[in-house]
Amino acid sequence: MTTIAALLAGLVFGLGLIASGLADPAKVLAFLDLAGAWDPSLGVVMAGAIGVGSVAFALAKRRPRSVLGQEMKLPTARHIDRRLVGGSLLFGVGWGIAGFCPGPGLVMLGMGEAKALAFVLAMLAGMGLFELLERRGTLRRRQPA
User: Fold this and answer.
1) Which of 74, 76, 90, 102 is nearest to 10 (CA)?
2) For the chain, what is the largest distance between any 2 Cα atoms, rounded to a whole number of angstroms?
């Protein structure tokens, strides 16, 4: 049942990305182009998503288990460190260059978009590099105080 629920959630998410325009790199780049032909419409989509997500997280915090009986695994970290800021900057730069972030990139790959293939391959290479550096202990992790 969990697999079916995950599949349905992924389908709804992907359809939402397509319907909102978040899967269209040109629309995303127009949203990020504050000095040019700025298109603020994705800001409305993001504000709505943040609102829905905030309510969902508030409800989830009150439950020990999910609706499907799985253990709740909510984020516990509360501090902002260099790793978080650096990762956020890398994510933002990649989003600004490609017009894709991971979700829309996968949606567009599924739709046969050639640029999405290059993005997803680069994303997987970055994830692999991160894992390699983590295992070697090259990336320093600050312990919470």
Assistant:
1) 102
2) 49
Give the three-class secondary structure for 71: strand
**Is the CB of residue 119 less than 8 Å from the CB of residue 113?**
no
Tokens of residue 85, six digits: 């800021």
pLDDT at 95 over 90: no
User: Measured between alpha carbons, how far is residue 8 from residues 1, 3, 96 in Å?
Assistant: 11, 9, 29
What angle separates helix 25-32 from helix 102-110, to the nearest 10 degrees? Answer: 150
The H-or-E segment that residue 49 falls in is helix 41-61
Q: List pLDDT tens digits, range 45-92.
A: 889 989 999 999 999 989 989 888 888 888 888 889 888 898 899 888
Token pair of 116, please? 């999405």
The Cα–Cα gap between 61 and 69 comes to: 15
CA distances from 59 to 86, 124, 129 (A): 30, 33, 36
